[in-house]
Design a protein that fits this description.
This protein is an alpha+beta fold. 26% of the residues lie in helices and 19% in strands.
Length: 350
Amino acid sequence: MPWKVSGVVEKRRWFVERHQHMRWGPRKLKVVLAGKQPEVSWPAASTMGELLRREGLVIARKKRRRVDPYRAPFAAATEPNRVWCGDFKGWSRTQDGERVDPLTITDACTRYLLRCQAVEKTDTARAQAIFEAAFREYGLPEAIRTDNGAPFASRALRGLSRLAVWWMKLGIVPERIQPAHPEQNGRHERMHLTLQQETMTPMAANRRAQQRRFDHFRREYNEQRPHEALDMHPPASCYTPSPRVYPARVPEPEYDTTMMVRRVAPGGQFAWKSREVFLSETLRGERIGLQPIDDRWYTIYFAQFPLGRFDGRTCKVHRLVPAQVFDRADAGEGEPPPSPAPHPQNPDRK
């Protein structure tokens, strides 16, 4: 039987409606259809895929966000406030249909649950407000460890987000685990499992009732629940607030007199010899420092954090990459001086 274009489309419609395999690709469909009607001379899978796209019968795959990886070694959580861990638990709906996204913050050393706050949206403003409340109550940590999702990271240079920029201005190191490696934040993930089992299975009647569950869980988790890693003591018996107090005003970054200081424009550019060089929109309005390496290359800093290498001749910004210390005699023409090789990520034992 000759194969007809219209016939394939109709067969696809019939197959999707009857078997609800909308996410099956053309290769799988060809095998199934050929098995059902072997007498038909079916076209190549690529041809079928193109025809299905024309008919609007293909569900596009969601593109994965590619975030510039965090390459520095993690800080060891050897004492309170060395490292805080933050994450959104993952949303669920209350019995009345409201979406709840709990933002959780823990101290990595003592497991103290600093915050467990339900929000309706996982944006920068809500996250910053919760972190600010924690800073005011407990002081500032040395580092905050998160995953690579928004609002903690972005596709900008060094994976910076507006939230991370705020942390850096406060002198906090934003650490990010490797993609698909939740075990690097294992202590926090285990707390999430307990939170899920004790407060979200099933969900409460509404958002307010769910928050009451979170508040009760937080008190019990901190004050009563013993932890083996703490010699069976509860976190509250081990945690102490940070001596670094949250400032009344977030300070502007200070730079050494050897650096050239530039302010990033609203569009993410900074001025260089009558030219505009794009850096990152996440740094809009912020002051950066350019530390000379030689008569051509500069290291770009935000506060005390290196962001990249700048080529003063070509006006191009290069990402920092793991490599040996730069040796101009060995570098090729136009190659940026690389950063010192970081140690492999080795998070503290859980």
